[in-house]
């Protein structure tokens, strides 16, 4: 039997790996093309996300690009201003799946990410990925510990962190820029920097989400390390905060 600290520690690590891989790979590299990944880094991120979330990259990117196109206007897949805070917080996953299953959305917003050979063979089979991931976890830390840690990770990722970014990030918070998204500095520490959402909507192609000294984007040091190792190149425009009026409210 695993010691009692194993389950909480493994849960936190798993969730953070999935959140940061989502932010760096699906969000910054693919959806906004702010990063250019080396093929090895690209494959490692795809495998990591397949095992920890089972998500299709074309679906994630299409839904997210549609969110940027129609932010808080009719057509936004998960706007709390249109749907209400609690509906997005509690049912974010349902709104996501509804949009992700829409073939027109995929074709209109992510034609550059049509399934390739690896997708057809493995990565679009989400349940297979999550099943293999869970099996590996159980082999590593024991059956019950693996099932509990895997289950807690799924709940945190699907029902807590992702909805907090989409719901709270468009509902209340602080602002640096004039748009309908908000920053949550403390939350950003556990959402891979995603909760600096006001900054992100102001500069969607910036690979770095933090601006002020009090803001921290946990994905940024990882991006810098991967860039130093030659595994990616920051291709989005440099952070051009100085050219934009910063609101102090
Ligand atoms: Zn948003
Ligand atoms: Zn975005």
Describe the structure.
The protein is an all-alpha fold and 249 residues long. The chain has one domain. It has twelve helices and two strands. The chain has helices spanning 6-31, 39-52, 57-69, 80-83, 85-100, 103-109, 117-123, 126-141, 143-166, 185-188, 197-202, 219-228, and strands at 35-37, 232-234. Strands 1-2 form a two-stranded antiparallel sheet. The protein is globular and about 55 Å long. The N and C termini lie far apart (52 Å). Bound molecules: zinc ion (2 copies). One zinc ion (ZN) binds next to helix 1 and helix 3.
Search tags:
mainly alpha, two-stranded antiparallel sheet, 12 helices, globular, binds zinc ion
Q: How much helical structure, as a percent, in the residues?
A: 55-70%
User: How many separate helices?
Assistant: 12
List low-pLDDT spans: none
Order of helices and strands: HEHHHHHHHHHHHE
Q: Kindly name the structural category.
A: mainly alpha
- Summarize the main sheet: 2 strands, antiparallel
What small ligands are held by the chains? zinc ion
Distance between the termini: 52 Å
- How large a portion of the residues is in β-strands, by DSSP E? under 5%
* Coarse morphology: globular
Rg over CA atoms = 18 Å
Domains, number: 1
Total number of β-strand segments? 2
| Strand order, largest beta sheet | 1-2
